[in-house]
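Hi P.,

Sorry for the delay on this. The queue was packed all week, but I finally got your sequence through. Input first:
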Amino acid sequence: VLALFPSWYAAPQPDWPNNTFQWDFPLEDMADLKPLAADLTAFLNAGPKPLVFSLGSSNLHLRRFFETVAAITAHLQRRAVFVTRERQHLPSTLTESVFVTPYAALSVLLPRVEAMIHHGGIGTTSLCLAAGIPQLITPLTFDQPDNAERVARLGAGLGADINKFTAKNGIPLLRRCLEDASIRQKAMECAQRLRQRRPVAELTAWLEERMHNPATR
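Then the structure:
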């Protein structure tokens, strides 16, 4: 059993299988294969750091989510990047302060933004931690509520119930993520922890041992 998250994020538990190996977040987003698009780079260069909004690949809440965050962005007078392949769910009245893209390599994008609001998938969550930015998580299902709770416990962000996520209650939560110095400090501390990664050789040695020695599986 390979646990791809560090112990400071989730400590080993007594009921874990004996053949569990805990390593680090993979932090892989194909940035080498898919660099930031030229028009997105131009948008980032053209003004203050934006906010990033994404709800992953789930479509159930997309329209309401993007309508809500568009209202929040307008109220806070912030620039924003909306990451979604489902443009039909976006409001028809987006301004030039909002850039829409179907994909962006988060390891490259996130160091250039103020905060991210997202669904709490472990890949997105870990890349936010690696970038040292505050995150507001609106979890949908699977491990996402757990990730939201862990990020809040670390002090690196906040969580919000997607079913109750409105502009009215989202504005103070996002404003706190942006203005609370302790949240930004904790996020930066997480990024520093993730720079102290264990050698890949430890992981490959463990995998190879189990491939060649059935008794260790």
